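Thread: quick sanity check before group meeting

JM: Hey all, I'm pulling together slides for Thursday and realized we never actually wrote out the predicted structure for the chain we discussed last week. Dropping the sequence here so it's in one place. If anyone has concerns about the input, flag it before I start.
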Amino acid sequence: MDPDHIGARILIVDDDEHIAKGLDYALTQQGYETNVQYTGKATIVAAAEWGPDLLILDLKLPDIDGLEVLAELRSRESTANTPVILLTAARTDPASRVEGLQLGANDYVIKPYSLSELLARVAANLRMARLTQRLEEMTHRLADVASRDALTGLYHHGKIMEKLSMEIYRAARYGVALSCIMIDLDKFKSINDTFGHQVGDEVLIRISNILKDNCRKTDMVGRYGGEEFLMILSHTPQQSACAKAEVLKEKISEEHFVSLPHGSRITASFGVASLGQSEDDDATALVKRADDAMYAAKAAGGFRVVCLTP
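JM (edit): ok, ran it. Output follows.
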């Protein structure tokens, strides 16, 4: 038996107690954890509460048939992809087996079956499910890597704007506050010109870490471009966003950079904008207001926060 499958949860569903208990014994001997049900309705409840890794489902049940159970399981997010092996009698109409596969069954076995064959099919379906899960995890990781800035690990420009559009839609739909902060490092070009781009990159990475460390789980931050960063604050009115910007302003200015001469200080200018009441408010408009506020902060000498009224 594949060590990855030891302890896998298998839900056995058959109205024949003799068959169900025989399967239960054989599967537990293989190291699986089992749960036995005898009716369709009880199966649906058990699948939702117990979270099986695989179902062995008889087509003929005393209350609702296996096809109805299968259709219900596939309609639920928690069991939509759980492997299902159908048990069918030899006399069962072949059309029922076809319908079962069309509804999302992964496999079927005809009674009377060979126990060794059924165990092999269980292992094969668990292995396929595990490979599918690993492929999905890898796909998600690759998608996440592709959405991030290579230097800082923050969302890149395109992704943070996409996230902002989604948050604006959500805020408008549920009537909640939303703010964003545009952050630009003051006189950053002089750091690159004086100390080199490697030191400049180290500064950008440290600043990025400060921003990440001061985000709530619901907040998002991205590298908007160059030395500019965009932070999205969900469920946050303008006053709270301005207070957050003030905290970030001080934290950045207090940070010590070992690659810079002793006493050197990095400062940043902050522009804060909040979602207004206009239905035409979109990501571009909100960012422009935050950007205008940030440039007003820089024009006033930098190292300050400017908030624009929605």
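AS: nice. Residues 13 and 42 are 9 Å apart (CA to CA). The beta strands are 9-13, 33-37, 54-58, 84-89, 107-111, 178-185, 220-225, 228-234, 268-274, 305-308.
JM: adding both to the slides.
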